[in-house]
Specification:
8 strands; alpha+beta; five-stranded antiparallel beta sheet; globular; 12 helices
């Protein structure tokens, strides 16, 4: 009986609530509110994936290089070049009224091979070297070489990348879609050698060409920058810049830096 009366008395003291709930001191209540405010104001931790997405959203931020197409461990020298590449170059020289000078300069031992190969075929690397050596002797400006390269690129990529780009536009075409096909294009133009592709930014990459003797010729290096540039433009890239990074200490190798907006 005394126990029941004690419980009733306790409930009355607690305002009808069960349990022993003493009023919270004012100092403790203030401290608890302050702690809650600090927790709300503290910065939230951002996951690595979110941080990476934020970096990619801002081009001025550095992006860790990503190898899109690795170079093979063993690379054999280029032994043959597709005549399509040479014929496209000759067509451009004719359009720029440079063909007659070229015919006079080119090595007579390879003149017939270069000028009479109409159907697509594989040409020995020595014949290709003779072609680019004669083109080097034309002493054209860097701007002219880039324009020639873009014209050549548009021709040799017309059917191959043109079909691909029409399909890709349905999914959202970007330069990365076409750059991913660079190895397939290389295999259509060269027998031997290798090409590596590395993404260095949201709209930046490097192209690393190995074991290609044609890299020793300034005409080829500059013109091939135009070939790459035409492919990036086909993928909706604007204000495209492709340049040779360096040739110092390189032999049969060429590294090109590409960027676009």
């Amino acid at each position: 009986m005394h126990t029941v009366r004690a419980m009733i008395t306790q409930l009355a003291a607690n305002g009808g609530r069960r349990g022993c709930c003493r009023p919270e001191p004012a100092s403790a209540h203030a401290k608890r509110c302050a702690d809650a405010h600090v927790r709300q104001a503290a910065p939230r931790k951002v996951s690595a994936s979110v941080s990476k997405a934020v970096v990619l959203a801002y081009p001025d931020q550095q992006v860790e290089p990503e190898i899109l197409h690795p170079l093979p461990v063993t690379v054999t020298p280029v032994t043959s070049v597709r005549s399509t590449l040479i014929q496209s170059s000759l067509t451009t020289l004719r359009q720029r009224s440079l063909f007659d000078r070229y015919v006079e300069i080119v090595d007579a031992r390879y003149r017939a091979t270069l000028l009479e190969s109409l159907a697509p075929e594989w040409l020995a690397i020595d014949a290709a070297r003779a072609h680019y050596e004669a083109c080097d002797a034309l002493a054209l400006s860097s701007a002219e070489l880039l324009q020639i390269g873009e014209s050549v690129g548009e021709r040799i990529q017309g059917t191959f990348l043109g079909t691909l780009s029409r399909k890709a536009r349905m999914m959202g075409l970007t330069p990365w879609v076409l750059l991913a096909q660079f190895q397939r294009l290389w295999e259509r133009l060269m027998q031997g050698g290798a090409v590596g592709l590395t993404k260095t930014g949201p709209k930046d990459c490097t192209v690393d060409i190995r074991r290609l003797p044609l890299c020793d010729y300034g005409y080829f290096r500059a013109a091939f920058c135009g070939v790459i540039s035409s492919g990036i433009k086909l993928g909706a890239g604007k204000s495209v810049t492709v340049r040779v990074a360096t040739t110092s200490g390189y032999s049969n190798r060429c590294v090109m830096k590409c960027s676009w907006v």
